[in-house]
Queue: 2 jobs
Job 1
Amino acid sequence: MITAEWKPIEEMVGYLRGHKKVLVIGCATCVAECAAGGEREVETLAPLLAMAMQNDGNPVEVKSATLERQCEPEFVEAIAEAAAEADAIVSLACGIGMQLVAERFVDTPLYPGVNTTSLSLREEPGLWTSRCAACGDCVLGLTFGLCPVARCAKSLMNGPCGGTRTDGMCEINQDTPCIWRLIVERATARGRLEDLTQVRPPKNWSNSPAGGPKRMLREDLRS
Amino acid sequence: MANNSTAEFQPRITLLYCRQSLAPEVKPVQGSRTGQGFSVRLVLLPCSSKVQLPHLMRLLEQGSDGLQIAACPEKACQHLVGSTRAEKRLNRGRELLEQVGMGAERLGLERGAGLSLEDLMQMAGRRADAARALGPNPMKGV
């Protein structure tokens, strides 16, 4: 899922100074799963913002809504009336959802209530860890289903790097396992360690986010 | 946040209490009561874990000066982890209240078993004392 984390409330207060009617909107999909922008978080943040603005000397009227999906135009229409009454919108959706709302209600300032952080897996309650970097050239077939792009601090294509701790954790973050250690262990368990010694062509990084904005076109799906 | 009206300030407390924390002979009560220098609204819950952050924040937005949760002792929760979950949510709520300048002490949790109505009123009174130190909820009357 796409994960996000609340911005500091102080930052949101800074955005909202001068506004009088604020609409806080959430999204019931990814950001709800990572407890950043679902209905529960929206209904927590809305009163908090009202209190924060009151204490800041800039009282605002805060309304709230949670969309089924903030990244689909059909669902965004559900807040058209509320958005028309607001003079600012705070969105707890990922950056995709935020931008769609900003495009749809172009005259109303939209402010982010979250930072979109990663494509992660919920490992256990309250813990999400990166699994994908949307690099555009998936290597999972070569790395035994473990992603070195998202899960190695250096995104190494050949590892381990030599900085692995003695307990098998990453030298950069002691809470993160060295993914190349896990790749080697899985390859060994399958009796295919030799696969990792094969020389491979360079990874195509031009299809990664560093290659600029993506445009995916499927003629068979277009009307 | 305390102001000049603190001396006359009679905090309005909302006390959310777990049904299981009462003594067996105590009949659950709901509604408003008046204590020594404060008023309290008693809200009965099937388990303290039913408390969610939106409930707490809305109550404060609507003008409660303080919220007290009465939960069972940690190892006596009928739902095993209910009161632990309530406490974790409450701690998160306290952090958020501090961030918005409301004061963490507006929110509290006490544990107890075999509680009487008088025990609940005393818990509310302790939260009233904490709220009194912070002054009236700035959202009151907004």
Note: The first strand of chain A starts at residue 2 and ends at 6.
Job 2
Amino acid sequence: MAIVSRGFRGRPRAGGDRLPPGQYLVEDFPVLSAGPTPRVPTDRWEFAIDTEEGETHRWSWQEFMALPQERPAVDIHCVTRWSKLDTHWEGVSLDVLFEDVESAAEYALVHSYGGYTTNLPVEDLLDGKAWIVHRFDGEELAPVHGGPARLLVPHLYFWKSAKWVRGIRLLNEDWPGFWETAGYHEYGDPWREQRYEGD
Amino acid sequence: MERTPARRARWTAARLTGIRDETPTARTLRFSVPGWPGHLAGQHVDVRLTAEDGYSAQRSYSLAGPADGDTVELTVERVPDGEVSPYLTEIMEVGDEVELRGPVGGWFVWRPESAAPVLLVAGGSGVVPLMAMLRERRHAGSRVPFRLLYSLRGPDSRYYADELRRPDPGVDVTYLYTRGTPDPWPRPAGRVRLDDLAEGGWPSSFEPDCYVCGPTGFVETVADLLLTLGHAPERIRTERFGPTGG
Amino acid sequence: MTADHLDGNALAGPLAELFAVDVTAATGRCASCGLAGPIAALHVYGPEPGLVGRCPGCEEVVLRLVRGPGSAWLDLRGALSLRVTLPE
């Protein structure tokens, strides 16, 4: 049994029905990193979707920026227990990027500049649930937050919203990513508190 | 040779028995930890705080002095907007309890049976584990020559000021102020430079053991400068404390 | 690149929960570039969501440690070997 330190309260842990269980609210935007921050100039940036049949769809930065843009305002929830409400982003819906992609694959492995990976079901990327975003709060997305572009999948814990996103590989079998091979949950629904493997 | 017995670390209760202010933002906390196994100079402990509702937070702090029975000392700098350090430096009172895990870390340590001269380079609160080494030297009656280069903002941010002012044969202390100096002061305020290490340290031909502790950027800079001066990489031991403090 | 990392000394407490020897004083060899050095000298990112120890030479992952309630996950795939000094 842990010993209680008299007078220690820790961070405020306010409730509210927009907060999933076990989360607390933050006003700032914490930066968590598993490695050095990659610096990717937009003239060398590209984004690719590789299908299970070996077909590749690619976008340069210019091609990506010419696609229809959306401005999602969403709540985000980090597995390390902070949540941030009403975050404002700008980017391209994955529905747009998947428009011409022929695939029956059920699983996606997202990969990033710097080597990070994360996995999720393809259906969680579609139907207005996910974006590749390049602006936050009206400004260009800073490198520490994943700029020039990151994935945004706000209905899952935020480690699924891969920073410095480079591409998505479509797979017939689920392939666990960076944190999913080190104890974190393969799906990561904050409302079911799926933090660790087996939760 | 003193050796901490092999065992897995557990959390144990530690009761605050004394407080000493070091600067307006830092204080030394003395804890009583029944069954403390002893430790080496340079080792650290993990501190865990638990709230009434079960919420807990933990941080690492260096031990500030050599092992002394069941008593251990930490010096804690208050990090603005921190979660653990404001509790330790402002709220905690004598008699209150935290949990400690340790001692841990067997790399960044100085052993009194070592015969090589020692260079200590501290950035800010990175002086804490280096002070433990100086105190261990005195405690063990070692005659090994020590030099401490202590980089800090200004005279008001000195830790252990009285103790470091007292003459200690074989120990040289040099302050490297980065923002403001006493008046007059031979060295203008500024970050650590090659000259500081060349003049205040040991020639690399003496093969000193170098211990560098401070913020990540400081440690990188000093380690690079020491390599430039010809010190062997295996004689440079570093400990960084980074943005996750607080 | 940023200098926002800690070093392997920060692994000492979390690893001491798992092992009776101090792993940070052991010499590890990077599986990616072959560089050998003390675990204490790794560049460490974290502690949350997990501790990630990277090779100071090539920045590849050498070690990962995640601590959850009631379990710890340790991945040493990036370390070819660990040399631990033991008393005779």
Note: Chain B touches chain A through 21 residues (CB under 8 Å).
